[in-house]
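Example record for the data management plan.
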Amino acid sequence: MSTNLNRRSAIKGILAGTAAMGIPSGFSALAMPMNNTEAQLGMLKGNINHSVSRWCFDSLDLDTLCIEAKKIGITGIDLVGPSSWPTLKKYDLVSTMCNGAEINLVDGFNDIKFHETLIKNYTEMIPLVAKAGYKNLICFSGSRRGKTDEEGWNNCVLGLQKLIPLAEKHNVILVMELLNSKIDHKDYQCDRTSWGVELAKRLNSENFKLLYDIYHMQIDEGDVIRNIRDNHQYIAHFHTAGVPGRNEIDNTQELNYEAIMKAIAKTGFKGFVGQEFIPKNPDKLASLKQAIAICDI
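Corresponding structural encoding:
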């Protein structure tokens, strides 16, 4: 029997025992004693900090997602802006990857015609992120639109350099996401780890890093563990999903997420790993629980 099956069986038995003791299923995880296994489900070993992307579970209202996420040990919600932050604070959750300053995924920093809008948006958003007590703010390269790598790097540097001093002042990290250009985001320029790392080197600031999306990078370049190991100092955040399909990270897809999590932990990474898969299972929360159990290394 596999380790994951053993773990699931053990958890199932313990949760059944908890129900038998009459503990309400909706009871706050933080209010439970430290030996409450349901609250510890996502953090049995504490080697990975867990978050979940809001958009993947948008069939649930945000309050419900926060309540259920917290029960399984998730401590952050990805890709929410200022209007959602009060709800997260209500449940003592963190906005682990803030958004709301970007134009969209295709009109980004690699094209100077978008710089005026982007600089205005990020100049306004960076202090809000800091005031709320958060750290990461997402950004995008944008589509290539015929630009060479060099043109893309130069344009990104030109725009981002105007924001880096403000980010440094407020201790906010501008985090550019690596997206695949083969399947989901045709023509996106920051589609390789090496491209993002080169941009980070040129900016030369601890307040610019990368969002390494494991799903996207498996599609466009593979060699996931080696790329994480060799470039971890430039990575602020991770996202997950199964390949192919962008669904559950279980044994129906090709990535070994247990091994990947072990490689991430071995680098000393202290940020968050965000679940960003699209559940096929009608019981979406069951899939989320399973994903956290898989990533608990």
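Summary line stored alongside the record: Strands lie at 49-53, 76-80, 94-98, 136-139, 173-177, 208-213, 235-240, 272-275.
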